[in-house]
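We close this part of the discussion by returning to an individual protein. The encoding preserves chain order, so positions in sequence and tokens coincide. The sequence in question and its structure tokens are set out directly beneath this paragraph:

===
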Amino acid sequence: MELLILAVPVIFGITSILLADRAVKRGCRRKKALYMQLASFCAVFLVCFLCPMVASAAETTEAAASSGNGLAFIGAAVATGLSCIGGGIAVGYAAPAAIGATSEDSKNFGKSLIFVALGEGVALYGMLVSILILSKIG
């Protein structure tokens, strides 16, 4: 029964991904599909957060049972997730600009590469912070 309860959010998430992919292929705007994905993520989060059976089924180890360790896990996940999103946005804006600057003048390649690498560094710093948080738990 517990396995079925844990499978419901996973099945809901996979179904929402497939429906969004189908909507984009049919001609729906990507922005609308993104909003559908965010809404389904919020729904899955609320189901997992508010339903105590899902939370009790997920607690399989002694370390995950205490609330302090649980908050540390959430903090590590937030640090990694937000830094990766920020790094992705930074690289998404910096890389096309770097390609354009390099196509105009090949001397700009080194400077452009540094700006793209700085965007990727943000994600690495978030991952390092989450590793430090998780190392304090064990």
